[in-house]
């Protein structure tokens, strides 16, 4: 039970949603955009967040799109994870989101919610990083299209009031050979020790990782080490560790064990794709 | 644009009947089913989306009703365990002894019913993926899996 009241709005036009957000802010209200709502409801129930207006974006066609147009895959921010899995338009993304929470919750969590939420793993972003996704964002000044690395650098670079509309992915990249693995401590349904996603595109390997650092990342420096013709995993693994841009997470396992798991997964990636 | 503020009257399509009720936008579907409509088949467990005891079907897909606002369900078809009415999943749970205390049963039944509608030829992997959404503290997992398999035409 959520211990406070709020107003609920369900616009069907994207500009109505954005304009409503700024109108409510101007009235000193505290609106939130609402997709699946799983994290908003959970956190509101225990008093971690409070708001007085909810703007549900699921009825907005642009945020609910899941299609292929002109060789680009469009996935709206309000598309539920199970729909991405069932559509299989982007097989690596389908496999990745299939391991977020459990199947029933995947029928409610949206791709935008997974990436903009408070939980640090945000595994849905990994395939989008590898596929150089474009990200559409709307605010009062209009629509902006960002590269994924402009949109996400350790955290989503989105300001209050901006609405995440959709992701657009080049089908060629989405159809590349791929590998995904989520390693957890014990139960299958859990946050990851490490999740890796990789694609091989034009003979180069692209790698994105969640669970190793405090944020999901793709590193040009690590990819240049791996893609060196002389690369030897046993010899060069320390170079990969030295290229990490932060401390390895120590909860659920030691940092040494996480690095052991990373090395094991890198071996699998090099073997499989 | 649809707007709800304060106490509002809504019509919910539950078990193929239109039910009128007053709700607040902040009320979860689980709360409204149990406390405003008297449909106590969906059980409150963790109320955090982990246990699955509160699972209902929305447009034939399983949803944990503790993680859905009742206002989100307006205009959609809600099916609770009360609406199953001797569905094959219920008979299978009896035949396979797929419960002990029974608290998780309605949630598991809804997942199995949805699986049989959406994937009548589901393989073991899919059955396992769907059933992992729910927890049974009496650990009847073997029997529940057997019940699920028995209603799928594989």
Tell me what you see in this structure.
- The complex is a heterodimer of chains A (273) and B (154).
- Chain A has 273 residues and is of the alpha+beta class.
- Chain A folds into three domains: 7-56, Uridine Diphospho-n-acetylenolpyruvylglucosamine Reductase, domain 2 (2-Layer Sandwich), CATH 3.30.43; 66-174, Uridine Diphospho-n-acetylenolpyruvylglucosamine Reductase, domain 3; 178-272, 2-Layer Sandwich (Enolase-like, domain 1), CATH 3.30.390.
- Helix content of chain A is 35%, strand content 23%.
- Chain A is built from twelve helices and twelve strands.
- In chain A, strand 2 (31-34), helix 2 and strand 3 (53-56) form a beta-alpha-beta unit.
- Chain A is globular, with a radius of gyration of 19 Å.
- The N and C termini of chain A lie far apart (47 Å).
- With 154 residues, chain B is of the alpha+beta class.
- Chain B folds into two domains: 8-80, Ubiquitin-like (UB roll) (Roll); 88-150, [2Fe-2S]-binding domain (DNA polymerase, domain 1, Orthogonal Bundle).
- A five-stranded mixed sheet of chain B has the order 3-2-6-4-5, sandwiched between helices.
- In chain B, helix 2 (88-95) packs across helix 3 and helix 2 (88-95) crosses helix 5.
- Chain B is elongated and about 45 Å long.
Concise synopsis of the structure shown:
The complex is a heterodimer of chains A (273) and B (154). Chain A has 273 residues and is an alpha+beta fold. Helices cover 35% and strands 23% of the residues of chain A.
Quickly list its features.
heterodimer, A: 273 residues, alpha+beta, Uridine Diphospho-n-acetylenolpyruvylglucosamine Reductase, domain 2, Uridine Diphospho-n-acetylenolpyruvylglucosamine Reductase, domain 3, Enolase-like, domain 1, 3 domains, 4-stranded antiparallel β-sheet, 12 helices, B: 154 residues, Ubiquitin-like (UB roll), DNA polymerase, domain 1, 2 domains, 5-stranded mixed β-sheet, 5 helices, 31% helix, elongated
